[in-house]
Amino acid sequence: MTGTRWLDTDEERAWRAVRRLLTVVPSRLARDLNQLGLSTADYEVLSTLSEKPGRRWGLKDFADKMQWSRSRLSHHAARMEARGLIEREPDPADARGSIYHLTDHGFEVLAAAAPGHLDSVRNRFIDHLSPEELALLERISTRIADLPD
After folding, report:
1. Which of 59, 79, 100, 141 is the most exposed place for a label (fewest CB within 10 A)?
2. Cα→Cα distances 49→4, 53, 60, 67, Å
């Protein structure tokens, strides 16, 4: 195919290593979270809500932050709501939207899981990098993640 910029050997090796990292680390972290009684998606929802003042967030902005569709977030939130982890209420500013609220029970579940999750993150990732490598990884990750769609 004309115009295709094929990867050279070094680029391909680096890309394959990144792909493996993006597969292996999340899989291992998910397995560890499951042992704590949460899915990765559960933990993301709980931790993201916990960062917001009042532990509340509107559907549109929350879905944008999570990089999820509104439908995906709404369906997952319904399952979490049934478990008493979050509550939904109508959004007065958006007739089709909802406001999501982290319940006290949800916050307690998050607080109980956080130490084990952080141990997992350290054991499976952070503790294997020097401070210089972490700083470089942060700069690289931010630069790539902040590229426009």
Report:
1. 141
2. 43, 9, 13, 14
